[in-house]
Amino acid sequence: MNAPAVLLINTSAGPVQVTTPVPRETWWMVARTDAATNVTQTPAWLDCVCATGPFRDASRLYEFESGGRLVLPLVTRRRRPPSLTAQESWPGGWGVGGPVSSGGVGPREARAVFDDLARLPALRVGVRLRPEDSEVWAGAVPAGFQEDRHTVHVLDLEGGFGEVWERRFHRSVRRGVRRAERSDVDVEVNRTGRLVPEFYELFEQSIVRWAARQHEPLALARWRRKRAFPREQLEAVADLLGESCAIWMARRAGEPAAAIVVLRHGQHAKFWHAAMNRDLAHPVRANHLLHRLAVDDACAAGCLRYDMGGSRQGASLAAFKEGFGADLFVSPRYYRERLPVSAVDRGLRTAVKRVIRFEEG
After folding, report:
1. Rounded Cα–Cα distance for residues 111 and 204 (Å)
2. How far apart are CA 156 and CA 269, in angstroms?
């Protein structure tokens, strides 16, 4: 690995020292001082991204005159000139990146980071923010950056599981959990990666159901879903995160019925992926039980938030998450491009959806 480059740049917040890529020990130190740090903002997540894609570390450390320090996770593609590639936090499918900081970072410093990103020679620069940061950074976005509006559902775990069960889970969810507990459902949790093959088989079964629901040709659905979430991605995350990656598996008569992947770092747990055999799982509300157990586990570990991820407003998945008491938050992505590649990509996707009469799930 090459030694980090250290630059001194002039910004609207005054001179700022930038180090890239960020030394690991510094990144971990800053992450530990930022209580809002998610697992997807750690060096371990960077390793997962680079292990399963053609990416390399392009993270940037900003040190301000005020004494504040900020780490911005970034990757870029290997073996491509900067003008023909993107620098993103993170690439599609890898979730929230965005800055972690050790105090002293406000709108002025946020604008300084945007000043730096605007100068990068990359074809595209994109940053997906966690909900906690959206207000500060929204006020600092300069001209030339565009916004993709994303949302996430987050369940507040303050008060512990008893409080969550009684006051945040809706009655319908509690009924679903009790139904599952009375049924022939057995649940196993594993943090070694041993359940990856079974989870992915269940995921492949789910693709068939998703394709039928969305009026999508099965071959296209398989290509699209497995490209967005290849088995190698789950294997890498399970291997590199170790005990921070839990796979919860519900079985009926020994057959996998439903499974979820939950990641954890500090005070934050994150529901990452799910799969199920609907014929086995839905009648006994196996997914209700899996999330109940994962939330209880997160509370026992001292977590204060259970991130249930994004879903389209009004969709059945959004209603499912809201049944657990999860609230909707904005998690914007800001990007700038030297050529309108995102607009072209959206146009092509929209045209294909029209041709196949795709229906959003």
Report:
1. 43
2. 11
Structure-token pair, residue 137: 């950074």
pLDDT tens per residue across span 179-200: 999 999 999 999 999 999 999 9
Provide the pLDDT for residue 310: 87
pLDDT at 233: 97
Three-class secondary structure of residue 309 per DSSP: strand
Closest CA to 61 of 100, 92, 87, 91: 100
Which pLDDT tens digit goes with each residue over 306-346?
Answer: 999 987 765 789 999 999 999 999 999 999 998 666 665 56
Non-local (6+) Cβ contacts of 282 within 8 A are 276
String of DSSP letters for 120-171: ---SEEEEEPPGGGHHHHHTTPPTT-EEE--EEEEEE-TT-HHHHHHHTS-H
SS3 146: strand
Q: Count helices and strands (H / E) in the chain.
A: 13, 18
Judge if pTM exceeds 0.90.
yes
Place of tokens 């906690």: 132
Residue keyed to tokens 């009790």:
178
DSSP 65: T
> What's the pLDDT tens digit per position in 270-297?
999 999 999 999 999 999 999 999 999 9
What sign has the CA pseudo-torsion 136, 139, 143, 148?
positive
